[in-house]
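Dear U.,

Please find below the material for section 3 of the report. The protein was modelled together with flavin-adenine dinucleotide; I have listed the sequence and SMILES used, followed by the predicted complex structure.
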Amino acid sequence: MLNLVWFRNDLRVYDNPALFQAMAKGQTIAVYCLADKQWDQHGLAPIQRRLIVDHLIELEEQLAKLNVPLKVIDCQSFTNVAGAIAQLCLEHKVTSVFYNFQYEANELACTEQTLNQLEVSGISAHGYHDQCVVAPGNIVNGSGECYKVFSAFFKNWSANLQHLARPLYPAPESQAGTDIFSDIACLKDYLIDTLPTDAWPTGEEEAHDRLNVFIEQNVKDYKQQRDFPDLDATSQLSVYLALGVLTTRQCLQALLSGRVMTHSQEHSQGLAIASLDVLNEGEACWMSELVWRDFYRNILVAFPRVSKNKPFTEITDNLPWNTDPIAFKAWCDGKTGIPIVDAAMRQLNTTGWMHNRLRMIVAMFLTKHLMIDWRLGEAYFYNKLADADLASNNGGWQWSASTGVDAVPYFRIFNPYRQTERFDPKGSFIRKYVKELEGVTEKAICQPSPSLAKACGYPEPIVDLKTAAAKTKELFKGLK
Ligand SMILES: Cc1cc2nc3c(=O)[nH]c(=O)nc-3n(C[C@H](O)[C@H](O)[C@H](O)COP(=O)(O)OP(=O)(O)OC[C@H]3O[C@@H](n4cnc5c(N)ncnc54)[C@H](O)[C@@H]3O)c2cc1C
């Protein structure tokens, strides 16, 4: 009897239900299927691909300490995964496969194909929810349907957390040695050069340390400071969450108990404390951001069209979204002539990450001022972000474009200059990324005059904000 853990978006040994359950049942080996052609098709960011590979190398070391060998197989595309896993099972006489669920359309199809093939071979399969604090589909309204409004979802989530939160798992105990060896040789072909990844050091320990430091030092000020891109006030844990190196369940546990649970602690079914009332303002605010992540996953599960390039509010597909390649390129390159938009896009292009407030500003500028199809922006982000995550990215884009669930109302269009005055009043963030404006005064940097911009070699705005916003509102208003 041998068990196989099929790793995917869960590159960790702590709080990993599939790994924990497999090892509890018996001797276990592990597999990860690389799929670079699939990643090409999805437009996955090179920086995230590199991070996956680095974390797989680290995972192999962590699994080796548990005597679990990891086989990495180069499958190229999802269509080859079922065959590769079945073949591995046959080779090693595996009788049960354990995996954590993924919810995106192609990932679901790949799971289904694999499960069918395993069934034909007489191998049992066991799936677990690991991505949300409360498994998707459990927080529902009176009619048993998925909430479409975040505040209602959040209220229900908070009220039922105590009995609906999924268990938290420590790292399993080490098993007896095996004569099956790890094989991760094919990773070398995936060690691509990308933007530097040192902002997110590899490994679970790093993620735990960052989480603990954030909880100890920063979370108390989160509510006041989280919207200022020049401050280091958010957790920057999104990359670890996107790869499954860390879970929101662990984040919540750390928030409630003050520290992330590690191997020395007992497997805990419940939460550390009974009530969320003890959370201070900053902690409560940060928790609600984690819940947005759960919320968007629930939306993805309940409304699969959002992972198939469709808007949540289908009528918005009747809007005359454009694809203007010149304006789109100016946006991508950070050359729109609007300093905060350009600084944000340059942050994305040079670091692989962008502050949340800026994500909203640039997404709204692209969709509401340039009226460019939100799907182009979504794909560009996905191709650049180290924390690229379909559910959150799609949710954020559809929120900004007013096409999504609980989205910003179409008539509330962020003015990027007003946003700068509120969230980067001295232009310190702009100065970091828009070098042309480095020496400009605090007063002028938010919205430089045409003559000043020209003197600095900085472009003039590519669009008149007022006219563009008015036109967009008219178009939304006339939607049929
Ligand atoms: C247009 C747009 C695109 C986005 N694309 C992504 C994406 O591809 N991947 C991604 O992880 N997040 C995305 N977000 C959400 C958010 O911007 C990032 O999660 C956040 O900036 C990550 O920084 P942090 O880890 O410091 O967050 P913190 O402020 O410390 O928040 C903690 C965690 O909560 C979650 N979270 C916070 N805000 C949101 C939110 N609005 N929606 C969903 N989850 C949230 C994240 O997992 C984050 O790591 C997007 C938002 C917008 C508006």
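For the text of the report, you could mention the following: The mean pLDDT is 95.

Regards,
Y.
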